[in-house]
Amino acid sequence: MYKQLLKDRTEAGFLLSEKLKKYQNTNSVILAVPRGGVPVGFVISKTLHLPLDIVLSKKIGHPNNKEFAIGAVSMDSMILDEHPEVPKKYIDHEINKLRQLLKEKYELYSGNRKPIDIENKNVILVDDGIATGNTLLASIAMLRKKNPAKIIVAVPVLPSDTVPLFEKNADEFIYLIASSYFRGVGSLYEEFYQVDDEEVIKMLSIINTTE
Question: In this entry, which stretches build a coiled coil (predicted)?
Fold first, then answer.
C-alpha cells in the first residue's frame, strides 16, 4: 500500500492523518495507547485539530497462569470471559489492584485532567502498531460500553492476517502496512526508539494547553 518501511512514528501520524481527513474539526476524539501510540496520536491530533487523550487497560491474568488473560480492565470498565473455576474474590481483588495502577498511570501522564467523555463522539483509537491485537480488542470492547458514535481504529502497521479481525470489531479500520512477513512492530520502522513517560507527559500537556 505504502513503501514497506515507515521512517518513524511522526511520518506514520502524518500518513494516517491523510486517511482520517474527513474527521478534521468534527465531534471526534483521539485516544492513543501509551506509550508508543502517543507520538502517532499527537501528530494526528495536531493535524486534524482534534483533542487527544490516552486509553489505558490491563489484562486480568488467570490465577494459575498470569499470562493467560481471563478479562481486561480500564479505569471505569471491564470485560470478563466465563471462567467458573476462578473465584469471584480473586477477580474483585485483581480489578481493584489493576484499577489503582491505571489511575496512578493516568495521573502520571495527565495530571489532574479528567478523561475526555466519549459518549456520542467518534473515537479514533491509535497505536504505533498491532502485534497480537489483544490489548486493542479489549480496549474496543470496553470503549463500546461508553456509547461512542463509532470506533475507528487507526494503526500504521500490523500482520496481514490480523486485518479481518479489526475490520470486524471496529466500525472503521485504517492502516498503512499489513505485512505477510511480520516480525514485530519495530521491524516496519526505520527508527523505532523506546518512548518514555516524559515524552508522553509533554505531548499530552502541549495538546491540552493549546486547545
Answer: none
